[in-house]
From TrEMBL:
GO MF terms held by the record: ubiquitin conjugating enzyme activity
Name of the protein described by the UniProt record: Ubiquitin conjugating enzyme family protein
UniProtKB keywords: Transferase, Ubl conjugation pathway
Ranges of Basic and acidic residues composition bias in the record: 270-282
Amino acid sequence: MDREVQQLVEMGATAAQARAALNKYKDVMQAAEKFFEGEFENVAGDDSGRTHQAHSSATSRDPDVEMDKEDDDGELEDDEGSDAYIDYDSDDDGGMPGDSGASKVNDPYAGIFFSKDRREEVIEIEEESVFVSVPEINEKVEVMTQGRWMAGCAEGGEQSFLFSLYSQLGESQLSDLDGVCPCPSGCGQTVKRQQSDFFAIYPKFSTYIQHLQSKVPQRCPKCQTDFCFACGEKISQDASDPLWHCSNLQGVILGVGLFMIERLFEQQKEESEIKETTERETKRRKTRDIDDDELDTGSGKTKGGVGYAGDLKEDSSGQAEAQANQFAKDSKIRALLAEVRVYLPSLQRPGGARPSDYLPHPSSLTHLRRRFNLITSELLRNDSLADMSDRHGLYFELLEWLETISSHESLCSMMPMPIMRSVSQQTVVKKTNTSTIRERKIIYEGSASPRELLEAISLQAQAALKGLESSKPPEDPSPEPNEEQKRKTVVANKGKSKGDALAEGNFDETAKLYGFCNRLLATTVQIDRSLRELKGDDFVTRMHESLPKAYTSASDTIYVDAGDTEEDAKEAYVKWATSSRFEYCDLTIPTTDNSDETLNYKHYFNNEIRMLANASIPKRSVAIAKELAILTTNLPVAWDSSIFLRVDDARVDVIKCLITGPEGTPYHNGCYLFDVFLGANYNQSPPGVKYMTTNGGKYRFNPNLYADGKVCLSLLGTWTGPGWVPFKSTLLQVLLSIQSMILCEEPYLNEPGWASNAGTPQSKAYSANVRRMVVKTAMLDALQNPPEPFEDVIRTHFRLKARSLKKQLDSWLKEDDHRALASDGAEYSGAGRNSSTSSSNDFKADINSLKSLLNDL
């Protein structure tokens, strides 16, 4: 009976409560159910056993994390200047209504936010693989060793749960209770457990389940008592499925199942990496062979500018094959995830919850945090909503897991908890007289939580839905089904995932993306609702404060303090730019009357925009939706250079872009404005892009940026080279190309025929002239007459950079060649052509004026 008492103590009962429950109800699971119903709340006695699991979990907490304590009046003490971590399930607040302490024990992290700054060092033993012969399938299978079973666990308290379960269900010499199963009738008969009974890794998860179904029900050869081989309690032979009998089975099935999922995922990832490496090497060899042939024949072509020359074409061969391979891989992972998900604790299980759903094994949370979280992290770090939508089957199954986890009080706390990821590994070999031991020292660090990763994708989904507003699928006019109809629908669709429904339904791309985005957002809402119900409003509010912030419509200016040092300014700049890089705003020209005339826009492409005022082109809408999803969270932000976008609130195809010049170039810290329009044939054709920072059409800042605003770029079809690939190329690629390849270190080399003149006097003279144009137009004029709608962005950009920019201007003045500012630097292609020194005073005057404005900021 001591063992049963210990089980109930681990579930949250005191030793006295456990004995009272077992005296009245002989079955440990029934006793546990009655305990959680509150039947033994009034039983007094020693409470020492109740702290066992809480102590185990506490050992895994970061000692640097301090918890806010409540004072006698119940008010939280406010410790200014430090991050507070609040235990919302502390004894002082009384917990949830009807909670007798079970949630604290089953979920050792309830109500606690860990800092992502955590760092844990773990030593893991590398054991040789063990294989056993299995007559049922006529082959050898691997048996999970204890090291494999516990691998990846960074928490001390969680390690004890894993160790305890493995010792109990596997072969062990630690105690008389471990590794053997005594007959519950007390006849003295025992059955020896083998590691292969519960920890064999079969080729298929379904085969493993069949093995357990035959192994778990045991009959004592001495007294003929039927009992469960996992927990040793009596079991009825007519039970519909013996695998639901106890939480031990749930713990081992989840552990083995998630190990199989993780292994398959890692195998697929490794295969993809090997294939990509092989393909890159093949392309390099082909390129070298072509170059060698051209050198031998003397037919090599003259380079025509950085990144723009040649007759190269996008190699689209193999795309269909790659997509088919990806679909096949996703199908395998999805099917395995669906099989294992059946054994997740769930109070909404079809047919009713089982005892282990109410009382999941303590290792359940451990398995999910160390194995499932890593898969979640890999999949949700995908920065392409379009790719997720194309792979909707796998991602819908992932969302099913997240919803199931978040709806159970013992598991839901893992949603906002940082994922511990391995950042370094070191193998240590220790030799003794009799053996060689290989150890791995692994460093784990905290990273974004599942809920935080989901939030980043949710922001993309919101942007995509805004892009689909003009062509969203018609709403179903049928009335809301009642509960009975919903139940019948669930039964009818049993075994089918939402991914299957989409695949079978012949949905067009608009409906597919629309459905995926709504499904994603619905999961986010459900997770928050579950957390609010189970953990309270304060818990969810605190969690939301740490999540990535959604894009917003342009609002009142928020002052950002530059701090006292350049490091302070850099930190403030990146934080500000991240929150300001993508916004919706009104780009229309205000009208004085209320006529229904088509609106005009403050935009170069105003006429084209007006022509498409009421157009509904589904394929275009889908392309724009995908584009917005990418841009929302993927615009580059850095102290050195950033990209800001403003999208019209009503017409999301109307865009303005501001790029700040990269460091190390003559464009550094200048502000360059572009008007962008996603035309009628987008994405079959590239977007319209016009350069607007030209000093009224006078200055040509770059061989690829004309004074009339033309942008020469092969992606836009305005230059030779790799062109726009329909439904694959993106606006983000265009913007990044402008930022990195046009606004470059030596713009002179972008001119066809001059690419071999790096470092020449002509190139240096061209860059000096660009710097003069930048100071006059992209800095001074930008501050004096900031273009709409970037007034606040430009002022904040220059104010936060004022200290470093003054040093930059002094350096530029020293580098100046004292020539006159030319409207096109090509005038300096001949060294010494213009020897005027008049620009020295003009350039210096512009710099002094700019410094004066910076001081005013």
